[in-house]
Amino acid sequence: MGIIRLRNLLTRKDLLRNMSIDIGGMRIKYKDKDDTFLEKHLVSKEPFGQFKAWFEEACSRKEILEPNAMCLATVSRNGYPSARFVLCKGYGKDGFKFFTNYESRKAKEMSENPNVAATFYWEVLNRSVRIEGYVEKLSEEESTKYFHSRPVPSQVAACASYQSTPIESRDVLCERERKLEAEYMIPEKEIPKPSYWGGYIIRPRAVEFWQGQRDRLHDRIKFRKPTEGEVVDGKLLHEGDDGWVYQRLSP
Q: Which residues of 165-190 are buried (b: 16+ CB within 10 A; e: fewer)?
């Protein structure tokens, strides 16, 4: 009996070791051919106005629970990429803002290499926005103001967690949280913002707007800053506003 169990165990291990799951047939239908995203559909000739239009439409769809969620990609000093979702907490012509722990992995990577990318994806709309740029820290004043606008439990959590560091168990976090709640929530004192917590802004160099099409001939319109000596010909490259140019990319 023991030999049979051992043989079955070895067989399962071999299966797992050689496992290759084919999901090539997974696909969904996107928009119809007559529902395209053309240059004439741009509501702005610079990326922030166009983002505002798409973002507000995403916010109006109740199926999209967190329209401000974006996947932030960073790269280490040694060239190793990593990505995670964060919440965009503000945007405008100056860039896209988010907040995090300054001692987290992403923050350490951004201190070594400020070049980042971020992607919004709204499946219900078959739309995505890709941002490429560099980050700068927000002022301590702005970070503090936002920190105290958060729900108190979120402020406590930011103080309790030393993000990205190993931890023995969840019980350690819960104990830190309990102590902080006893210190600040019961007497309702203001929770001081930790020095290791604050905001960043992504200053974009390029912003691409993608809309999926049923025949996979997706629409891609990219705004970017022109290179020195680049000629805007009105065919492959178009002049935008506020120092931006835009072009259509092949899908």
A: eeeeeeeeeeebbeebeeebeeeeee
- Residue of 176, 216, 224, 248 marked catalytic: 216
Centre a 10 Å sphere on the Cβ of residue 81 and count the other Cβ atoms it contains: 10
Span 41-86, pLDDT tens digits: 999 999 999 999 999 999 999 999 999 999 999 999 999 999 999 9
Contact 242, 93 (CB under 8 A): yes
> Is 61 noted as a catalytic residue in this protein?
no
Where do runs of H (alpha helix) occur along 113-229?
140-147, 152-160, 170-180
User: What distance lies between CA 8 and its chain's CA centroid?
Assistant: 44
What type of residue sits at position 189?
K
